[in-house]
C-alpha cells in the first residue's frame, strides 16, 4: 500500500462492493476531477508475456513548470494529440501535499504557509504511488482539499494505465521521481501570464481573495520558482512553451506512440496455437504424476451428463437453458469452495450435544466476473457464498490484432487495497477457456493488485483441451481451475459479427477461435 490513510476498512465476512466514500465539497470534487483523471479511448493491451510475467512498464511522462504555467493544459493537449490510445492517467502533484497541523492550517488560511517549497510535498509518497503505476500495479493516491488546506482520509484508486503523465511544480525536483520518467518536460511561461492565470484560478476555483493571492505569490510562489522550480528545467528532455504549444505537443505525442508501438506484444496467436501439452487426460481423471493438478473437473455422473446435454442442445428453450445453467453454476461453485481453507469448529446442537465440524478460515472472499460471459455463473456463486461481493472486468479483442484489451474494471474493495488483497480469496468467473487470452489478462490484473496466485480460483463451464489452458497452467501453476467439462476442439474461424466469451469476443471480419462442441454463445443464450 502506498498510503495507509484509506477509506474505512470493510468488516470481515460481511463484504460489500467498493464505493467511493467521500466528504468532498462540490468544488473539491471538481478540482480533483480536473487534476487526477483516468482517460480511455480504448482498452489496455497486454503488458505481460507467455510466462505471465510483466514485460513492459507503463510509459511515464513528467511535466514540471511554474504555478499556473499551463502544465495540466499541456498534459491534456498531449492526450488529445495521441488520439486513439490506451488508458492514460494524468497524475497531479497537488494531491501529495503533506498532512497539516492545526497551526499550519491557521497559517494557510491567512496566506502565510509556503505551499511552493519542496518540503510541502510528500515526495516519498508521490514516488511510491508513481512507481506502483509504472510497474502496472494499482495504487491509492491521497485526496487533498484546497478549501480545507488538508489531506483527507479518503483516497482515489487508480490502475491500468499504459501512459502516465505526472505534473507539478516540483515534478522534476526529486531524483527519485526523475528516475521514474521516460520523458521529462518543462513548461516555460512568462511570469506575468502565470500570475494572471493564478489569480483567476484561485479566486474562481479555490475561494481565495485577490489580495491573498498576491501576498502569497510575492512571499512564496515567486521565490520558490526562482530557487527550486526554474532550475529543474535543466533536467528536461524538452522545453514546451506555456501557450501556443500545439506543434510541441504533436511532436511529443508522436514520440510516445512510437515508444508504445515498440512495446507491443502478440499473445493471442501463441495462446491459440499452444496445442495439447498432455496436461489434461482424455478420460478427465486426474493423475498425481501430471502437471494438471491445479485443474479440477466435475465428475461426469449421469446427472452432470444430462445437464451438459441439455445445455449443448441448440433447441433448448431459454427458460430451461437458464435453469440448467444455474444448476451447473451451483455445482461448480460448490466444487470451487473445496479449494478454500477451513479450520475445525465445535458447535452445540439444539439437543445440547457437541458437534465437531469446520468453518472457513479466511475473512475476505470475493468474486470477479469477466463480462458478460461470466455473468451466468454469478447466481450459482451467490447461492453457495452468502453476500459475496462480485466485481467485474470487460476484456474484449482488438479488431486489428485480436489481442485482448482491458476496457473496464470494477473490483471489490478487498482487491482495490493491497493490504486486503494479499489476504483475499478470489473466484474468477468466465463461461469458457478457449485461447485463454481473457483468462490470462484477468489473472494478471489480480496479481498486479497483490492477490496471491494460490488464492485465485478460476471457475468456468468449459475448457478447450488444445487451447490456452496448458499455457495458463504453466504461467500460473498455483492458480486453481474448476470446470464442468473439457472439449477437444478449438476451431479457427472467421467471425462476421461481435460475439462474447473467451475465444468468441471478436470484432467483425476477423479470425477467431471457438470451443467445439461447446454450448454456443452462453451469455447470449442466458441473457437474450
Automatic annotation (TrEMBL):
Residues 1-21 are annotated as: Disordered. Pathway: Pyrimidine metabolism; UMP biosynthesis via salvage pathway; UMP from uridine: step 1/1; Pyrimidine metabolism; CTP biosynthesis via salvage pathway; CTP from cytidine: step 1/3. CDD domains: PRTases_typeI, UMPK. GO terms for molecular function: ATP binding; cytidine kinase activity; uridine kinase activity. It catalyses: uridine + ATP = UMP + ADP + H(+); cytidine + ATP = CMP + ADP + H(+). InterPro entries: P-loop_NTPase (IPR027417), PRK/URK (IPR006083), PRTase-like (IPR029057), PRTase_dom (IPR000836), Uridine_kinase-like (IPR000764). It is an enzyme of class 2 (transferase). Residues 299-492 form the Phosphoribosyltransferase domain. GO terms for biological process: CTP salvage; UMP salvage. Residues 60-242 form the Phosphoribulokinase/uridine kinase domain. The keyword Repeat does not apply. It comes from the Eukaryota. Keywords: ATP-binding, Kinase, Nucleotide-binding, Transferase. Pfam families: PRK, UPRTase. The keyword Flavoprotein does not apply. Its EC number is 2.7.1.48. Belongs to the uridine kinase family. NCBIfam families: PRK05480.1, udk. This is Uridine kinase.
Amino acid at each position: 500500500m502506498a498510503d495507509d490513510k484509506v477509506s474505512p476498512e470493510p468488516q470481515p465476512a460481511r463484504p460489500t462492493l467498493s464505493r467511493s466514500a467521500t466528504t468532498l465539497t462540490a468544488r473539491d470534487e471538481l478540482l480533483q476531477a480536473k487534476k487526477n483523471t483516468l482517460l480511455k479511448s480504448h482498452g489496455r493491451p497486454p503488458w505481460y508475456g507467455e510466462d505471465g510475467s510483466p514485460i513492459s512498464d507503463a510509459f511515464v511522462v513528467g511535466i514540471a513548470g511554474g504555478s499556473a504555467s499551463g502544465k495540466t493544459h499541456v498534459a491534456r493537449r498531449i492526450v488529445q494529440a495521441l488520439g486513439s490510445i490506451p488508458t492514460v492517467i494524468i497524475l497531479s502533484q497537488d494531491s501529495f501535499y503533506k498532512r497539516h497541523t492545526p497551526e499550519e492550517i491557521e497559517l494557510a488560511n491567512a496566506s502565510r504557509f509556503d505551499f511552493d517549497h519542496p518540503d510541502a510535498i510528500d515526495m516519498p509518497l508521490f514516488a511510491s504511488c508513481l512507481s506502483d503505476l509504472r510497474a502496472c500495479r494499482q495504487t491509492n493516491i491521497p485526496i487533498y482539499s484546497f478549501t480545507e488546506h488538508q489531506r483527507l482520509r479518503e483516497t482515489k484508486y487508480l490502475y491500468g494505465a499504459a501512459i502516465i503523465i505526472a505534473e507539478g511544480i516540483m515534478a522534476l525536483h526529486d531524483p527519485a521521481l526523475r528516475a521514474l520518467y521516460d520523458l521529462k518536460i518543462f513548461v516555460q511561461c512568462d511570469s506575468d501570464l502565470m500570475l494572471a492565470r493564478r489569480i483567476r484560478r484561485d479566486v474562481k476555483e479555490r475561494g481565495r481573495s485577490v489580495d491573498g493571492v498576491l501576498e502569497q505569490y510575492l512571499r512564496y510562489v515567486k521565490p520558490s520558482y526562482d530557487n527550486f522550480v526554474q532550475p529543474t528545467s535543466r533536467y528536461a528532455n524538452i522545453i514546451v512553451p506555456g501557450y501556443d504549444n500545439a506543434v510541441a505537443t504533436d511532436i511529443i505525442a508522436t514520440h510516445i506512440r512510437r515508444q508504445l508501438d515498440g512495446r507491443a506484444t502478440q499473445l493471442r496467436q501463441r495462446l491459440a496455437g499452444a496445442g495439447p501439452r498432455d496436461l489434461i487426460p482424455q478420460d478427465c481423471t486426474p493423475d498425481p504424476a501430471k502437471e494438471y493438478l491445479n485443474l479440477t473437473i466435475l465428475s461426469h455422473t449421469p446427472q452432470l451428463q444430462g445437464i451438459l446435454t441439455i445445455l449443448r442442445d441448440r433447441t433448448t428453450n431459454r427458460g430451461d437453458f437458464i435453469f440448467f445453467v444455474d444448476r451447473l453454476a451451483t455445482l461448480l461453485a460448490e466444487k470451487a469452495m473445496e479449494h478454500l481453507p477451513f479450520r475445525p469448529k465445535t458447535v452445540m446442537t439444539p439437543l445440547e450435544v457437541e458437534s465437531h465440524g469446520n468453518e472457513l478460515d479466511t475473512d475476505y472472499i470475493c468474486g470477479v466476473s469477466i463480462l458478460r460471459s461470466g455473468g451466468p455463473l454469478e447466481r450459482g456463486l451467490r447461492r453457495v457464498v452468502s453476500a459475496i461481493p462480485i466485481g467485474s472486468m470487460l476484456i474484449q479483442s482488438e479488431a486489428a490484432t485480436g489481442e485482448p484489451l482491458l476496457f473496464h474494471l470494477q473490483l471489490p474493495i478487498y482487491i482495490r487495497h493491497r493490504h486486503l488483497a494479499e489476504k483475499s480469496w478470489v473466484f474468477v468467473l468466465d463461461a469458457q477457456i478457449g485461447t485463454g487470452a481473457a483468462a490470462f489478462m484477468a489473472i494478471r490484473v489480480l496479481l498486479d493488485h497483490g492477490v496471491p496466485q494460490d488464492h485465485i480460483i478460476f471457475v468456468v463451464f468449459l475448457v478447450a483441451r488444445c487451447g490456452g489452458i496448458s499455457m495458463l497452467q504453466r504461467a500460473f501453476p498455483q492458480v486453481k481451475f474448476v470446470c464442468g467439462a473439457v472439449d477437444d476442439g478449438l476451431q479457427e474461424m472467421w467471425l462476421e459479427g461481435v460475439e462474447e466469451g473467451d475465444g468468441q469476443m471478436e470484432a467483425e471480419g476477423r479470425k477467431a477461435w471457438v470451443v467445439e462442441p461447446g454450448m454456443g454463445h452462453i451469455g447470449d443464450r442466458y441473457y437474450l
